[in-house]
Amino acid sequence: MPVAVGPYGQTQPSCFDRVKMGFMMGFAVGMAAGAMFGTFSCLRIGMRGRELMGGVGKTMMQSGGTFGTFMAIGMGIRC
Amino acid sequence: MEEYAREPCPWRIVDDCGGAFTMGAIGGGIFQAVKGFRNAPSGMGHRMRGSLTAIKTRAPQLGGSFAVWGGLFSMIDCGLVKVRGKEDPWNSITSGAMTGAILAARNGPVAMVGSAAMGGILLALIEGAGILLTRFASSQFPTGPQFAEEPGPAPMGSPSFGDYRQYQ
């Protein structure tokens, strides 16, 4: 990692901040990916209407959580 | 994942491979601990032992497949940097798609297309998030560097989205 003082005189965000930011970013990416892939897979197994909404939402939360955790770890091991 | 200063190109492969292994092993450890704990027969000793067994068997496997993905990804990334002579988000997206395709090569062409689409979309999302984050961070500091990249649009509507779950 580069030194703790940034090029504009500002200190870099702390380690926990980076982990948190990684989690947020991973959660957002995972939600978006889960929305797409979840829609496809729920449509494939024949969900429609209200059931489809629930299934997609569940997939979105799951993949958001998984992605967020992995991104947070990825940030954590590099600082 | 553009926040850290990336290594120069040949060494980036090793760096990404090891980083991906660590990430997969730790993340797999966390998830498998929960899973082993829940799937074991009741009784605290059984649950602890079940979660330990699950971690020992599955976490290195997950780390290994992450490492394969990361290593191949950055190999293709570095190759594209060399061939195209520039570094932009399209490199990552292309190499994500190619990595998905190569790792699914033994499952036939349909699986390759699905896996490639998945890799490409995933990397496009990650790159897009990174660019948005960089924009956001630089808009907070008015003297910050201006980034003249176009925000790599996600390739929506991929063809033949059949067996996207068949990645390694």
UniProtKB/TrEMBL annotation, chain A:
Main location class: membrane
Domain of life: Eukaryota
InterPro entries linked to this entry: Romo1/Mgr2 (IPR018450)
Record has Transmembrane helix as a keyword: yes
Pfam families, A to Z: Romo1
GO biological process, one term: protein insertion into mitochondrial inner membrane
Subcellular location per the Swiss-Prot or TrEMBL entry: Membrane
Alphabetized UniProt keyword annotations: Membrane, Transmembrane, Transmembrane helix
GO CC terms: TIM23 mitochondrial import inner membrane translocase complex
Function: Has antibacterial activity against a variety of bacteria including S.aureus, P.aeruginosa and M.tuberculosis. Acts by inducing bacterial membrane breakage. Induces production of reactive oxygen species (ROS) which are necessary for cell proliferation. May play a role in inducing oxidative DNA damage and replicative senescence. May play a role in the coordination of mitochondrial morphology and cell proliferation.
Matches recorded under PANTHER family: REACTIVE OXYGEN SPECIES MODULATOR 1
Family the UniProt entry places it in: Belongs to the MGR2 family.
Protein name: Reactive oxygen species modulator 1
Upper classification of the organism: Eukaryota, Metazoa, Chordata, Craniata, Vertebrata
Automatic annotation (TrEMBL), chain B:
Keywords: Membrane, Mitochondrion, Mitochondrion inner membrane, Protein transport, Translocation, Transmembrane, Transmembrane helix, Transport
Main localization, broad class: mitochondrion
One GO location term (cellular component): TIM23 mitochondrial import inner membrane translocase complex
GO molecular function terms attached to this record: protein transmembrane transporter activity
Membrane topology annotation: Multi-pass membrane protein
Pfam families hit by this protein: Tim17 (PF02466)
Compartments reported by the entry: Mitochondrion inner membrane
GO terms classed as biological process: protein import into mitochondrial matrix
Spans annotated as Disordered: 143-168
Family that this chain belongs to: Belongs to the Tim17/Tim22/Tim23 family.
Quaternary structure, from the entry: Component of the TIM23 complex, at least composed of TIM23, TIM17, TIM50 and TIM21.
Function: Essential component of the TIM23 complex, a complex that mediates the translocation of transit peptide-containing proteins across the mitochondrial inner membrane.
NCBIfam families for the chain: 3a0801so1tim17
Protein's name according to its UniProt entry: Mitochondrial import inner membrane translocase subunit TIM17
Native source species: Periophthalmus magnuspinnatus
Lineage, top ranks: Eukaryota, Metazoa, Chordata, Craniata, Vertebrata
